[in-house]
Amino acid sequence: MQAVALACDIARKNKGRVYALHVIEVKRTLALDAPLQPEEDAGEEVLAKAEEVARKQGFEVQGEILHAREAGPAIVDDAIERQADLIILGIPYQQVFGDFELGRVPQYVLRSAACEVWLCRHPVEE
Asked: What is the extent of the structural domain holding 75?
């Protein structure tokens, strides 16, 4: 939730707004509006945590859950639709075969977003 705290801090300084987006990637074998209750519940929990982090900073966050085939294009499209000036992505520390791996979603957003993109990497878990 460091990304949410950072977003709130930046938005406060610039009199902006913060939108928290949770994307559920839906397999191509399912309809985009297929009920995915466990994923929906997990998304609601993430957004509730984001709202709590913002509330502790005296800020309000608008959260939304999107169903999409791929998270990267959904994030970029949402940023375009909202005319966002900045995307802040919280990313985990991932290792693949012993090397740090950025992941496909952050790579897509960095490559495709029209606005600034900041990455907020979680600390290494021991």
From this structure: 2-121
